[in-house]
Here is the input.
Amino acid sequence: MKAHDIGRQLTYPERIESRPYRLSLAARSPGQYRWRPPTNVFQTDAGMIVQVEVAGLGRGDFDVDVGERHLTISGVRRLDTAFGPRTACQQVEIAGGHFATEVDVPWKADPSAVETSYRDGFIVVRVPKSQA
Here is the structure.
């Protein structure tokens, strides 16, 4: 940061990049960007476990797409911002809207064997090792 930058207002992309989540630069459609939720990936003897932190989802708010050697977890988090007339936004740190995260799978994944659950704000996807 340069001396003349001290105190300047950050631009929207700079503010977004300073957060723990990131915007995907690949737009789904013009003007519609996706944010990337925090994602953990674990490998066990039986396979892979992917844990995605995204609280506030309802039934049908996310999808898991299993490719041959990758999986994509995507969806939409709808935030309630209707707090009445003349409400001014003071601070926004909770990402809303469309999200997506992608994970490489080190073996050929069988979509019919993948198990998905959602509990306590976490999507958990279990990808068993192939039996080939």
User: Anything to note?
Assistant: The two ends are 53 Å apart (CA to CA). The chain has one domain: 3-128. The longest helix spans residues 12-17.
